[in-house]
Design a protein that fits this description.
The chain is mostly helical and 308 residues long. The protein has 17 helices and no strands.
């Protein structure tokens, strides 16, 4: 659970306007950062942050559990983001094919013979944040949402399932394909033309390459479960046995790990300080009004099964 949300709940429970303003600042940062990652546009993220917090003010004092609050806020922000996201002529297609996300022989050869071409090296490049942002935005919305919640916001599979309304198994499938997509985008962006040409010269014979590719693709389909320690012992042993003797697979899983880590360590983007301060003043005024009304007539608790 994010420390910001835990601290926000503590501050809200004091029911002191000054402490509540500090809590709102924490919630602003959380909602804006999440919205930027899902929406991709600052204007959409600002609109989402404002609408979510304005509608949340009457219910905030009712939350004494950080998990309940974060799930509810993300659920509301998710609905607003997906409704308002600006359409683009470059909008991604709606589904990701696992087959299309698998590396071909050329990429496998490049990964094993040119490890510096993996996303690991991209971590030290200046355009790293932009490349990651672009890769995430190319994901179809339903895959982007799962990746952002799971790898960038740090929620569990169960929390993501509750927010999205998906089954846990569907969350795992979409997460894995989203990770493979982002890995491919980052890897392709870091491979130079010289490296791609060298990879072509490094191809093995057709028969051997096809045989290994089929085996590797079967392994790749289980990698996210393996990295998240969700794979059962028998399959885990089989995967590790295969990787011990397969240099391309070792290079591929290394590049996937680096991509996941890059998502998990991506910095949060804060809202504009002046606009955020102005919004907090409006929210505090609304909070004080709501608290006065509550003394006369207690507000009903929020419906956590819906997103407004």
């Amino acid at each position: 659970m994010r420390k910001e949300i835990e601290r926000a709940v503590e501050l809200i429970q004091t029911k002191d306007p000054g402490s509540v303003e500090q809590a709102l600042a924490l919630l602003q940062n959380t909602i804006f950062s999440f919205s930027m990652r899902v929406c991709g546009q600052r204007e959409d993220a600002e609109d989402t942050m404002q609408e979510v917090l304005l509608k949340s003010v009457p219910f905030l004092p009712k939350f004494d559990n950080p998990k309940a609050l974060i799930v509810w806020l993300y659920k509301v922000a998710k609905t607003r983001c997906l409704m308002s996201r600006r359409k683009s002529k470059f909008a991604p297609k709606e589904t990701l094919s696992l087959e299309e996300l698998m590396p071909d022989r050329e990429e496998l050869a490049s990964l094993s013979s040119h490890p510096e071409g993996t996303p690991e090296n991209a971590l030290i490049r200046r355009e790293n944040a932009r490349r990651l942002h672009d890769a995430v935005q190319k994901l179809p919305p339903e895959y982007r949402l799962v990746l952002v919640l799971r790898d960038m916001e740090g929620l569990s599979d169960e929390e993501v399932a509750e927010i999205t309304g998906l089954r846990a198994g569907t969350v795992r499938v979409r997460l894995h394909r989203a990770r493979l997509f982002v890995r491919r985008e980052l890897a392709n962006g870091s491979r130079s033309r010289t490296q791609r040409q060298a990879a072509k010269r490094a191809r093995q014979s057709e028969a051997a390459a096809h045989a290994r590719q089929r085996t590797c693709k079967q392994i790749f389909a289980e990698l996210s479960d393996y990295l998240d320690e969700e794979l059962d012992d028998a399959l885990c042993e089989e995967l590790e046995k295969h990787m011990d003797g397969c240099q391309p697979c070792q290079a591929f899983i290394s590049s996937l790990e680096k991509s996941i880590e890059q998502c998990r360590t991506a910095p949060n983007e804060p809202p504009d300080p002046r606009a955020a301060a102005k919004l907090r003043r409006e929210l505090i005024s609304e909070y004080v009004r709501v608290m006065k009304d509550a003394v006369r007539q207690p507000a009903a608790p929020p419906d956590r099964s819906s997103a407004f």
